[in-house]
Amino acid sequence: MRVGLVSDTHGLMRPEALAALKGSDLIIHAGDIGSPQVLEQLRELAPTHAVRGNIDTEPWAMAIPECEIVRVGGQRLFVLHDISELSIDPMREGYGAVIFGHSHRPSAEIRDGVLFVNPGSAGPRRFRLPVTVASIVVSGGNMSPEFITLS
To answer: How many domains does the chain have?
Structure first.
């Protein structure tokens, strides 16, 4: 199963990001969505889960949770926007991955057997950081992240 990951769109859903996420079985938006149209466009590609980021303060965003548990195959993924607000021990609670955004910096690392992935930012370019999305291929107990840099 391929899970598309996107974050920090800030209201801009780039056509290149949509193209990179096409073919995903599921999409996760890790916050700072910016407008409901972003989620509408993602939902046209695949079932979409999203969490609210710090810029998502308009009335439309109040129904979006601050964190979410997404089940993919036999894995449980914990999704939140700002990793500094992680208040659980994901290893102890049995999560396979933590998906987050906020920093606009793409990253993937294993901590205590848990995959931590930030897909970076697919919205307006910030500083000199790349514009990226990511995906995770989930196969049984294995998860393999991949980053896609957008032009």
So the answer is: 1
